[in-house]
Amino acid sequence: xxxxxxxPSRVICKSGTSVKIECxxxxxxxxxxxWYRQFPKKSLMLxxxxxxxxxxxxxxGVEKDKFLINHASLTLSTLTVTSAHPEDSSFYICSAYxxxxxxxxxxxxxxxxxxxx
Amino acid sequence: KNEVxxxxxxxxxxxxxxxxxxxxxxxxxxxLHWLQQHPGGGIVSLFMLSSGKKKHGRLIATINIxxxxxxxxxxxxxxxxxxxxxxxxxxxxxxxxxxxxxxxIKP
Lengths: 117, 107
Fold this sequence. Notes:
The complex is a heterodimer. Chain A is mostly beta strands. Chain A is 0% helix and 51% strand. Chain A is built from no helices and eleven strands. In chain A, the strands form two sheets. In chain A, strands 2, 4, 5, 6, 9, 10 and 11 form a seven-stranded mixed sheet that branches. Chain A has a four-stranded antiparallel sheet with strand order 1-3-8-7, with no helix packed on it. The radius of gyration of chain A is 13 Å and the shape is globular. The N and C termini of chain A lie far apart (37 Å). Chain B is mainly beta. In chain B, strands 2, 4, 5, 9, 10 and 11 form a six-stranded mixed sheet that branches. In chain B, a hairpin with a 2-residue loop joins strand 6 and strand 7. Chain B is globular and about 40 Å long. The mean pLDDT of chain B is 91. Chains A and B meet through strand 4, strand 5, strand 9 and strand 10 of A and strand 4, strand 5 and strand 10 of B.
């Protein structure tokens, strides 16, 4: 099946620094990528939807200036957490699909655990 | 009321038992996913359904579109099946998530 990778899998950073997380579709072209955040013992929360070549659509309550999303190609989307704070510590997961084939099959990345100290 | 409801929220069973996890939804959907998340976080897609039934190994997923209900069954459960199982529906090109069912299988 299709594969989505995320890098890094784990990252620890200091307050005030920025962290970039990459999401790549390895064997298909992802017209759409989703970024999710998971709080401890909670379900996944959709942060934003990004379509290749256009600006991401953010969910209500998600700060677009803090969580910068770039989907510059059909195989790569990046999420940058700017000026990270301890409350940004979380598990971030991306998913991807090719909207052109109408299969609605979404492929999930393995996730990135961010710890801000 | 949530658009996707899962039951039970938590389930503890003995190894070998037949497990059923239920998912009901209230929106129109084009597909339904069953996902598995192990401690440590990585999500694995188990099934995507739009009708009928699918089987993979000891896992079986069914969906009844008229009743807006899906079930995930695990036969001959094993401790390695312990995980959170999540139902998510595709509605208007967006995924709507259930809260998940935490399954613990005891040896």
